[in-house]
Amino acid sequence: MAYVLAGGRGSRLKELTDTRAKPAVYFGGKSRIIDFALSNAINSGIRRIGVATQYKAHSLIRHLQRGWNFLRPERNESFDILPASQRISEFQWYEGTADAVYQNIDIIAESAPEYMVILAGDHIYKMDYEIMLRQHCESGADVTVACMEVPRMEAVAFGVMHVDANDRIVDFVEKPADPPSIPGQPDVALASLGIYVFNTKLLIEELRRDASTEGSSRDFGKDIIPYLVRHGHAHAHRFSASCVRSPEEPAAYWRDVGTVDAYWEANIDLTDVIPQLDLYDREWPLWTYSELTPPAKFVHDEDGRRGQAVSSLVAGDTIISGANVHRSLVSTGVRAHSYSSLDEAVVLPYCKIGRHARLRKVVLDRGVIIPEGLIVGEDPVLDGHRFRRTDKGVCLITQPMIDRLEL
User: Fold this and answer.
1) 156 φ, ψ to 5°?
2) What is the spatial distance between Cα 275 and Cα 279, in angstroms, rounded to a whole number?
3) Which residue(s) pair with 363 in the sheet?
4) Does the annotation flag 3 for ligand binding?
5) Residue 94 known to bind ligand
6) Name one GO biological process term (predicted).
7) In CATH, which of 2.40.50.870, 2.160.10.10, 3.50.50.60, 3.40.50.150 is domain 297-403?
8) pLDDT < 50: residue spans in the chain
9) How confident is the model over 26-46, as pLDDT tens digits?
10) From the CA atom positions of the chain, what is the Rg in Å?
């Protein structure tokens, strides 16, 4: 059974998570962030899935109901949405990642899976969990932790696995100032990806033990994994062994799009001729809720008013009407009107771009209506006063920000 932890707010995404949880944030034109973990599970042959939700979950739950309702109990498949519902105590919501599993032990026991794959629902990557499961079985570990090789001093932002020569975890350090290196690789560290495999019986025992431990934060990374490192057998699984790469992908790809800059960069990278993430890989499809939409449309063909998009991704039901789009990602249902321009823009669904607007290096939240003549990306001081402008010069624009403008 795959159990996806999808309750996090993702506060570093600022206003993008004002109305939705981070796993429900749009990505790549027509998908949501959570679709990557769920697609990995389906493509890995895992057909029993649970998703724990909590923070502002309506958008996420609606997406899951519409796009992930194809699993059938009569085929020994299941898809359970598990909102924080005060199942243990009428006053207690999910207190941590481990508690989000503990509060649903009865539902897990009913499915009776032999193994549990615990997943974060807010990262962008392609991975075959079957390979990690096989390693877990062969090693006899109590828990297997997926890890990624990173330059040692970049690991200060991660939980770091200190391993022996056989990749058995001998210590776990959360965001260390001096990360331990991999044996034989002094400049490389193993950073935890928040992906775990457990034997279900042992996991339930550990969750109950942790729930009765006073002072525990009820978290896998802070409590469960460090305890098993000290008192059991914890093993590292290297992401490079199970990451899925098409012939077009030059390297293993994993991204935490947890900041506005990282989110903008990951989306804009998709417009490259050969992007680091291949969304067109039919061998490892990205499943999602696909709206029924007409094709994208490009109209007007005269000097200064030519509907065109270059080095861009444009989703269905979008009309580029005499507008110029360059190196941008345009989601479903967008309308870009005459004489407007988009340059390095991430445009979420159902936005409207008014005539003569010029937008550069922006993220537009869903449904934003850009007034005629608005210019963003040319005056940093004015942009910072009006919108959420990052240190790297990306402007996040929401409808309330537009409503406050004095035009």
Assistant:
1) -65, -20
2) 9
3) 346, 396
4) no
5) yes
6) glycogen biosynthetic process
7) 2.160.10.10
8) 91
9) 999 999 999 999 999 999 999
10) 23
